[in-house]
Amino acid sequence: MAMVMHSMKQNKNVYKALIAAEYVGVEIKMVDNFEMFVSNNTPEFLKMNPIGKIPVLETPDGAIFESNAIARYVAHGSFLLGTSKFEYGQIEQWIDFSSFEIDTNLRGWFVPRLGYGTYIKPVEENCIAGVKRGLDALNTYLATHTFLVGDGVTLADIIMTCNLVLGFKLVMPKSFTSEYPHVERYFWTMVNQPNFSKVIGKVMQTEATIPLASAKKPDAKPQAEPKTKEETPKPTPEATEEEAPKPKAKNPLDLLPPSKMVLDDWKRLYSNTKSNFREVAIKGFWDMFDPEGYSLWFCNYKYNDENTVSFVTMNKVGGFLQRMDLARKYAFGKMLIIGNEPPFKVKGLWLFRGQEIPKFVMDECYDMELYEWTKVDLSDEAQKERVNQMIEDHEPFEGEALLDAKCFK
Ligand SMILES: N[C@@H](CCC(=O)N[C@@H](CS)C(=O)NCC(=O)O)C(=O)O
To answer: Where is the GST N-terminal domain (predicted)?
Structure first.
């Protein structure tokens, strides 16, 4: 019998178990026709969870409530709970940290703003201070760690990320999170992992802290016996995170005069050239290149001193390329991780549609600010040769070995 989750699916507490289930290959079915404040007030539900809150997981042996406990139950016996007693202890440590230092304070910040409970300014200030303190500590730790425990995703990362999601979506715009660049890198890397994005979908960071809800909405507590559907309080946006689909605006780059360069032709040539790279791919690039329709840019990571751990540096660049996914139709990039020894240098070459770095890329991909950008001067042969060497992963590059080269295509 498959396990059954009693809840709506769009809820950060439900995500914890669903993501864990993706990692360990366990099937969890969502209960049919769940209706918040109705289904969770029935005698059958209250028998499973006497406080009437979601989520509840129905297992062959009985029901489990409390989302962290449900996620632990799903992860039981797997690598998600570590490979040693010590790792297990660290995982539990980060689960508690994310629940009590991050989640409690974030909820104290956004729940009253959504109009539930009472908004009290000093209480909010206290919660924001708590969020800052928690993120500051997390940021320090993540400066030298890709994952919270060990070398891969564990339940600690799943629960931490789920607890951060509504912070990023509702109250923490870029101007707030940019104080914590390692947390940003971590968060976007995690939510873009296939097993996360399959459950959570695409996460968009809020552009501003949501304003105080003007009209006070009903308290989010379960009503004893909602009599009709109309009297049933609506689930809080926290409980159900479904968003109305927004009309899609056309990307301004699609309105540029047509270019003779077909980006996909170049990407195909790059991928298919296995030998004589200079003569075939590099020559082909310059034959195709349209300097009016496209521009070339060098980028240099501003904080190379931080690149002291090779796999952390490589993951950082990998995360950047994942986040550039939004620009796939309009860009091609090469990123080189340079040096035999730390600190490693990260340098790149990008081809963008248009004459500027696209604004939507600057706005939406926070990594862009971590690099210094210089437009390639096409009248300078030395710069053109540098372009060639970056495209072909030329080694040595500027006198140094390459630790890794990654391509965005
Ligand atoms: N500590 C619980 C919190 C669960 C919780 O707050 N659930 C909310 C929805 S996000 C709920 O069911 N609220 C309904 C209510 O308060 O009656 C967990 O992690 O599972």
So the answer is: 1-82
Query: Alpha carbon of 188 to those of 143, 237, 315, 319, 352: distances in Å?
Result: 15, 22, 12, 7, 22
Q: Which residues pair with 406 in a beta bridge?
A: 335
Higher pLDDT, 222 or 93: 93
SS3 200: helix
**pLDDT over 80 (residue 395):** yes
Closest atom of ligand 1 to 70 CA is: 20
Domain boundaries, the chain: 1-246, 253-408
Query: How does pLDDT run across 336-358, given as a tens digit for each residue?
Result: 999 999 899 999 999 999 999 99
389 lines ligand 1 (CB under 6 A): no
- pLDDT value at residue 292: 96
Report the alpha-carbon distance of residue 322 to residue 316 in Å, rounded.
10
Determine whether the shortest distance from the Cβ of 239 to ligand 1 is under 6 A. yes
Structure token digits, residue 299: 């980028």
Torsion of CA 251, 364, 312, 175, to 10 degrees: 170
Residue 35 Ramachandran class (φ > 0 left, ψ -120 to 50 alpha, else beta): beta
Residue minimizing CA distance to atom 14 of ligand 1: 53
- How many Å apart are CA 74 and CA 22, to the nearest integer? 10
Mean pLDDT in residue range 184-202: 96
Q: Where are the beta strands (DSSP E) in 287-392?
A: 294-301, 331-338, 345-353, 371-375
Using pLDDT thresholds of 50, 70 and 90, give the confidence band for residue 228. very low
Q: What is the pLDDT of residues 202-223, one digit of tens each?
A: 999 999 999 887 434 434 433 3
Residue to mutate, 54, 64, 159, ligand 1, most ligand atoms under 8 Å from C-beta: 54
Closest residue by Cα to atom 1, ligand 1, is 66
Q: Could you report the per-residue pLDDT of 141-156, keeping only the tens digit for each?
A: 999 999 999 999 999 9
Task: Determine the CATH number of domain 1-246.
Answer: 1.20.1050.10
Output the residue whose Cα is nearest ligand 1's atom 3.
66
Give dist(CA 310, CA 402) in Å, integer: 11
Q: What six digits make up the tokens of 7?
A: 């809840």
Instruction: Kindly report, residue by residue over 15-38, the tens digit of the pLDDT.
Output: 999 999 999 999 999 999 999 999
